[in-house]
Amino acid sequence: MTPRAVAKLAAPLLGIVSATMLAPLTLAIVDQQWRSAIAYLVSAAGCVLIALALRRIGRAQNEEIHRKDAIGVVVLIWTVMGVFGGLPFMIEGALLDPAAALFEAVSGFTTTGATVMADIEGLSRATNLWRCEMHWIGGMGIVVLFVAVFPQLGVGAKQLFRNEVPGPTSEGLRPRIKQTAVALWWIYGGLTVLCAVLLIVAGMPIFDAICHAMSTLGTGGYSNRAASIGAYHNYGIDLITGVFMLIAGLNFGLFYACARGRWKTLFQDPEARFYLGLNLVVTLVVAWCILPMHTSILESLRFAGFQTLAVTTTTGFMTEDFDAYPNVARYLLFLCMFVGGCAGSTAGGIKVVRVLLLFKVATRELRSLAAPNVVATVKLGRTAIPPAVISGVLVFVVTYMLIFVATSLLLVALDLELMTAMSATVACLSSVGPGLDAVGPVQNFAVVPAVGKLALCFCMIAGRLELFVLLSVFSRELWRR
After folding, report:
1. Neighbours of 410 (CB within 10 A)
2. Quick one: which residues bind K(+) (predicted)?
């Protein structure tokens, strides 16, 4: 890895991060919240100064970016974003604990939605906007935006894009990587605007609609209401949010295909079919479990469907406390936290395509026991999956579970209850947000000690960067030039 190359590329990225603080800064000035305005002004200025320093360090770097440099840029920017994203919380006074402020910001940018704040409605509008804006920026990824804005990186841009977009495969939508990134952002932005407009039509206040639309498409879950979507008690708002959560959990490459007139692709894609089927089955089971808690089957389906989508898409909104559900429903939703959404979506988790591949590999192994001489290939639809991809999926899942076990063990050692520790870990590793018990939907992560918060920050960044990009930083090979 070449430090000068990393510095050169990280500088404009930090410039973009500072520019995103202009929105909450402007809102704070409009609301005459001067302490908030100072907080975002100082944070944006600090971000610019660091960007200028990095630019000076990397100004003599003319070499093309390589894979090691791309990894360094991605890890650096996601870490620094957490620091500067949390700085306004401390300056404003919303969070005085550095670990808590870092946790809140990392949770925002990684679209996790886990919070340490109890009095959400007591925050300034600027801070609530910033929390949801972090989701929106992190949803598609600041690095993808960078590729769209700075196409002159050439092959280096492709390396950045591959390290940023989640999933076991990295197939572009279009031949040129810059065009791919721009297409993604147009789709992402268009869906966000549509979601906000529909929420306003359904009766949600304009500011609330903007915040929730950004959180929904980013599959984050931050809300400016303590009761989340449940605060509105509006069937239309529940339905619109649920539909857009479902959309955000799908592969954005499918939307591009639909925009080109290939609507059949959406229904022919094996991962999309499995994803839709999984949500349907889980919704029906959860609805059956919670039927005694509601007055009708339709009401039970309404709440079960919303909570299921909030978990499987790793958005983390709520319309009621799913931690109060019967154990079968709670356990099923807990398992769904591991799965997450589709590859190429803004959702987290292991990803539906990996789970589907695991089932197919298991089926192949069972068949080989009965017919050991038959060579069977693993296919998704009509596409044969290369052994290297299957091997990568298996290694990913094993690594994921090892991180889950290690972090859960650490949290238990910090005196957290077992289910609290386990659900907090998977909620952060899969970018879900709320967990169970002490970190449930109506609780927050303030109960986690500072060391635990830092460990969960590691989980959030690792999960957002598909584990290996972050873990490779600890490899000696990465630091060799």
Report:
1. 16
2. 111-112, 220, 314-315, 432
Q: How far apart are CA 303 and CA 321, in angstroms?
A: 10
The DSSP H or E segment spanning 384 is strand 383-384
Q: Are 10 and 77 in contact (CB under 8 A)?
A: yes
What is the Cα–Cα distance from 236 to 242, expressed in whole angstroms? 10
Is 383 annotated in a binding site? The answer is: no
In terms of Cβ atoms closer than 10 Å to its own Cβ (0-12, 13-18, 19+), residue 474 is: exposed
pLDDT digit string, tens, across residues 361-408: 888 888 887 777 766 778 777 778 888 888 888 999 999 999 999 999
Looking at every residue in the chain, the average pLDDT score rounds to 86
Tokens of 377: 């290939």
Distance separating alpha carbons of residues 1 and 3, to the nearest angstrom: 6
> Is 2 annotated to bind ligand?
no
User: Does residue 172 surpass a pLDDT of 50?
Assistant: no
Residue 171 predicted with pLDDT over 60: no
**Residue at token pair 């079968």:** 328
DSSP label at residue 230: G
Q: Is residue 23 part of a domain?
A: no
Amino acid at 103: F
pLDDT given at position 2: 72
Give the residue-averaged pLDDT of 141-167. 56
User: Across residues 301-325, what is the average pLDDT?
Assistant: 94
Q: Which domain holds residue 400?
A: 376-479
Q: Which pair of tokens denotes residue 120?
A: 């959400």
Give the per-residue pLDDT at 153: 47
Does 314 show up as a binding residue in the annotation?
A: yes
User: Could you give phi then psi for residue 422, rounded to 5 degrees?
Assistant: -65, -45
The lowest-confidence range among 101-115, 135-149, 244-258, 385-399 is: 135-149
Burial profile 247-261: b = 16 or more Cβ within 10 angstroms, e = fewer: bbbbbbbbbbbeeee
d(CA 161, CA 145): 9
pLDDT at 181 over 80: no
103: helix, strand or coil: helix
| 141 assigned to a ligand binding site | no
Q: SS3 of 379, please?
A: strand
Distance of alpha carbon 169 from alpha carbon 167, whole angstroms = 5
The share of the chain scoring above pLDDT 90, in percent, equals: 55
Residue 186 lies in a domain: no
Cβ atoms within 10 Å, residue 420: 22
Residue 218 belongs to some domain of the structure: no
Helices (H), 252-370: 252-259, 264-268, 270-290, 297-312, 327-339, 352-370
- What global pTM score does this model have? 0.90
Separation CA 54–CA 51 (nearest Å): 5
What is the number of domains present in the chain? Answer: 1
